[in-house]
Amino acid sequence: MHLYLKETDSCINAFEYNSAFKYINTVLSYAQGANDVNTEIFCNLKLVELYRHAELYKKAENCLQKTSNLIAINQKTVSQNNVMSFYNQKAALFSEYYDIPDSTMYYSQKVLSLSKGQKKSQLIFSSLMEIGLVYDNKNNFQSAVNYYQKAYQLAKETGKKKESCEALVSIAKVFLKMKDYKKALEKCDEGFAILNETDFYQKTLFYNIKYGVYEKIGNKDAAFENLKLQLKYTDLYQAKSARDKLSEANKRYAFLERDRQIFKREQNIKEVKQNQLLLMAIILLFASGFLFLIYYSKKIKIVNKQLDVYSKENAFLLNEANHRINNNLQLIIVLLSEELEKVSNSDSDNTAVQKILSKVESISTLHRHLYQSKDKKTVDIQEYLNEIVANFADIFHEKEIVLNHNLKKINLSIDLAMYLGLLTTELFLNTIKHAFDPKQIKLIALHVADNENQLYFNYTDNGKMAEGKIIHPNLVIKICKQIKATFRIESKSGFEITVLKTLTSKEDE
Fold it and tell me: Among residues 182, 238, 186, 234, which one has the least CA distance to residue 208?
């Protein structure tokens, strides 16, 4: 198992994510089978590291949540090293994905507080570097240098050259920002002193900083020389990376070939047994299949006839249900209209009743289309929205509102059509109530079309009351989210919303 996890680190560093994923899953399956909670948590944290490295942050977030649940369930048995690793990964995610420095600082500090007496220098190093980066980004350069320096000292004491160079590079960059060019060059020279001849990548980083220093102080010759050295070691690093990658691939091939041979031997034994069982099964299946063939062919004919009858009955019942729903909704409309008339006669605010009445009418219109149509699965959005527009004609005339609408003939699913009807109704109501200055010319435009399986819905009004304001219509937004559509709201010269919805085979004709 240790060998698999070691191969995982090599694959991640070489950007071979599929291979790394397979290695981790192999160990994870073993841990789950053996009920080894700590190894399972460790594998999940490895997956978080992999997803972060591949910039698949949503997957990293989900995996980290799963790990959090495992730790919560098994608090008494989880090792402290796993808890520290969990906080370390969480700090990294807050830094790289959420960009919340305070959370990064919080979880990094938790790692440091748990690390007292621990030997997990890599976790301590990562946490110190994360805290240094937070201060660096806040331009608190002195605090950043202090934490980077602690990280460097730890890496130096544990003999980790790569981490030492990483810390020195960060320190030198901070001094460059502070315009302390002398110290920046000193840190670069300190880094060169611990590097070997073949540490090409680290040399490119230090030469890049020196190039930046000499550029800042105006020493063009020295800047040019350091730029040439940076490019030279970049080329050498890329060539070395290619060789290392080939060597790693050869090692992995040998490792996998050994596993393949073992697996092949096991498979050969299984295949012999399976072939014997398969032969017996084929003979039995052939005999039983022949006997039951005639029986089932007759039974299928009977069932098909029954299904045909049921289908016709269901079509009739569905049509009847839509008809009755429409009648019931019409009754509700009549009752609401009576209440609205009473409210109107008493000079009270009738807006709430009007809104309910308009929405019930839009749903009633949908069911009327369904029971009148031969196709019970889709609705012509052009006819449906035209009828909703007709329902508002009297109000628009009364309020002196001019509506221009361009609706393309599109067959949509019942659910999507219903939500678009409710969306249109809600937009009409919001415009009538909130949008217009009494003295202005009142215009509304509605456009619905489709293009390459993309539904386009655009609604605008020129209401002066909305100009330049941040508008957040809750019900409109909820409807857009319900149908899983993207939307954009603008209020530069009135109110405008554009809704885009990708049509699937279940939602269009």
Answer: 234
